[in-house]
Amino acid sequence: EFSGNVPVLNAGDGSNQHPTQTLLDLFTIQETQGRLDNLHVAMVGDLKYGRTVHSLTQALAKFDGNRFYFIAPDALAMPQYILDMLDEKGIAWSLHSSIEEVMAEVDILYMTRVQKEASGPVRVRQRESAVCSSRQRSPQRQSQYESAASAAAC
């Protein structure tokens, strides 16, 4: 028998959203930045098909003062419905063609891979050395948090 009192956490809806990854991302941001508001967040890569960027943008839009920088080729740009949602909430965002344009301004640099299975063959640029050595980079911490979260879920 199913009960209406059992909490359910949506693990995603296919290619649109990834809420469990967003919880991990929010935790990592809180741990590394000490806050979830008043952040300058750059999202780079496949913003069209990358469900993690859709979910994280919507989650961070719930906190005051956040600003978004979207960096992607036109063919992989953030979907219009996300941009419309940000506009409706009065949240600042801008489109860019390179990381260098915004690197000095951002607190969070969120890199996502090209979803080859969704988009077919797309030319993927190599990571720039500025990204790998930036103060915004913290994949080791995120991996540690993910391991702990996975162990707790089992």
TL;DR of this structure?
The protein has 154 residues and is an alpha/beta fold. It contains six helices and four strands. Helix 1 packs across helix 2 and helix 1 crosses helix 6.
Q: How would you explain this protein's 3D organization?
A:
This protein has 154 residues and is α/β, with parallel strands linked by helices. The protein has one domain: Rossmann fold (3-Layer(aba) Sandwich), CATH 3.40.50.1370. Helices cover 37% and strands 12% of the residues. It is built from six helices and four strands; from the N terminus they run H-E-H-E-H-E-E-H-H-H. It has helices spanning 19-33, 51-60, 80-88, 116-119, 129-132, 139-153, and strands at 40-44, 67-71, 93-96, 108-111. It has a four-stranded parallel sheet with strand order 3-2-1-4, with helices on one face. The chain is globular, with a radius of gyration of 16 Å. The two termini are 22 Å apart. Residues 118-127 have low confidence and may be disordered. It catalyses: carbamoyl phosphate + L-aspartate = N-carbamoyl-L-aspartate + phosphate + H(+). It is an enzyme of class 2 (transferase). One of its GO terms (molecular function) is amino acid binding.
